[in-house]
Amino acid sequence: MAELDISTETCIVEKEGNVLLVTLNRPEAKNAFNSQMLLGLYKAWRLLDESDDLYCAILTANGDTFCAGMDLKAGADDQHGATEEFMALMAEVPNVHWQALLRDNRPRKPLILAVEGYALAGGTEILQGTDIRVAADNAVFGITEVARGLYPMSGSTIRLRRQIPYCLAAEMLLCGEHISAQQALAFGLVNKVVPAGTTLDAAREYAEKICRNGPLAVKAVVTSLREHQECMSEEEAMLASDELAGPVFASRDAKEGMRAFKEKRAAEFTGS
Q: Which among 75, 83, 65, 76 has a CA at the least distance from the CA of 29?
């Protein structure tokens, strides 16, 4: 495993084979977002999108809290703690913070989340930008902005009701209360609950399964899952899905997959 030079003090980015491991690293502040963390997240997601040899990413955190959301002590924009690099990037990419938090321009590859401890406010909001989610049995979730007189700007009012039943989304958003890992599992907010301290192992198992599959096919499936929403008619969605399927079936990987099945061996995909 190699740490990449895009890492920052509060966001460690590492490469494990075909997997990008992104770790929030501000445990002394409950991994609350600051400008250096947002900078590392932004660079990680853009690298994931641009690198053909990266098939998926895992997002996790150091310490006993996954993420407490925005650093309220520092204020909404953390201008005083921002580096020249971050300020220059914001001038060039005004929505860099929303890209970092997976609200805008999500990478077109699977994102796996491993949550230990509290994931509150922005910690639960960034969760909704991921695809597969593992929670420790001590995890606690909550979109708590209303309790502070704030609005959840990272997309929860839009995404949450599309990911779990409307009435449960309304309860979380309007009451601003915490829910347990078991409640999150029952709501359909997470895929699996595992013993504390093992979420990263479980996330790596998911990543290993994904990396065995054809990367072009996986990327196309991710695109369909995210873009072909319920607001589209079934006919419209099917036509859009067919457009994604065509290049996949015409790829070398598709031919290799069918050949490997016939020869009863593991496929060797190249992403072409």
A: 65
